[in-house]
Amino acid sequence: xxxxxxxxxxxxxxxxxxxxxxxxxxxxxxxxxxxxxxxxxxxxxxxxxxxxxxxxxxxxxxxxxxxxxxxxxxxxxxxxxxxxxxxxxxxxxxxxxxxxxxxxxxxxxxxxxxxxxxxxxxxxxxxxxxxxxxxxxxxxxxxxxxxxxxxxx
Length: 153
Known about the structure:
Radius of gyration: 23 Å
Low-confidence stretches: none
Shape: elongated
Strand order of the largest sheet: 1-2
Order of helices and strands: HHHHEHHHE
Largest sheet: 2 strands, parallel
Distance between the termini: 70 Å
Number of helices: 7
Number of domains: 2
């Protein structure tokens, strides 16, 4: 019989809104959810093979849902989540020597040229996950190093 995942809603909430070291629940809580999910996946696999074709789709859907739960719970244990915001701020600050944004009236109707990722580290790193923009926006030093260039026709 599959388990209820009362802890899953907490895990999902932490995945959505919190992502620093303080957001990681006790590793044994995540491990417990992962073990339950793994057991359920194994049970579904056995049950799927015992059912006639017509009854397999529901269990296959449940199996897919559990696979998603497992991936999300595993991501809470990701090493990047253990790095404190202070360390990420230092790394971000070191990465942002220059940010180039070019306006070239000769290139397109709008005149906007899409910057290469390596030319806009502030924009790239601030769009990785929900935690990184918050950190990037808290660093005025990286946003004060944006260079704009206008090329007239």
